[in-house]
Amino acid sequence: MPLVGHQPPPIFRRGPAPLARLFVFVALCLALLVADLRFRYLEVLRNALSVVTYPLQMAASTPADVVRNATRYFGTLVDVQLENADLRRLQLDAGERLLRFEQLEQENLHLRELLQMSERVQTKSIAADILYNAPDPFARKVILDRGTQQGVEAGLAVVDANGVIGQVTRVHPVQSEVTLLTDRNQSIPVSVVRNGVRGVLYGVGRGMLEMRHVLAEVDIQPGDRLVTSGLDGIFVPGLPVATVTRVDRDQDAFARIECEPLAAIERSVQVLVIGRAAYPPPPPPPEPAGGR
After folding, report:
1. How far apart are CA 167 and CA 273, in angstroms?
2. Which domain holds residue 200?
3. Dihedral sign computed on CA atoms, order 213, 215, 219, 221
């Protein structure tokens, strides 16, 4: 007996043709675009989607923002450090220039004062600079940058703009040694400006001086100014030397007179070496009584 025709059911059912589906989707998209453009039907949907996707957008952009901000921070930090280094360098340069200017101004002031001192002195003077202190720890001596080649001689007086600082005690061709007024082995004949009282000034160390060989009853008092008397034939008369600071009149025959030097002995840099005082020639000896 022949079997009735029977076919198995198809596993996959065929839908509309792909081209038809394409036209349907295109038409749907165009309809949505026109409706949204004219009636804003999708505005609410877009806003909702933007709110929902905002955390995702922020999470996605965070690494890039971190890298960008870190790059900007470190770039700014490097720029600030370089700028600070430039400013510090400029500040140091400006401070150095200001210091040099102040030193030059102070040096010019000292030189002008020395020029005035040189004009007051009627003998030849030699400008010199103090190089350094002598290495002897038990003496107050300095070394000048002038010697025999510049006309410096042993025994000449040395002054700064304020007064006597010492005496040349040793001379070399291009340098010379000066024993300061405050050295214990140094002495200088002086007189009081106010009344002409004479004495000898000695160094006693500690930056101080002492006037000796003055009787206790002699009129001398604190504040009196002392100048060179010129009796030794070395120091020009009238050079400022010291100021009396204390007078002790005990039971001794001689007064104890403490003095402070007028010159900046421990701080002077530019000085003058003063030539020997010029004295008129001695008068001729008297003729014999019967000679003609």
Report:
1. 9
2. 125-274
3. positive
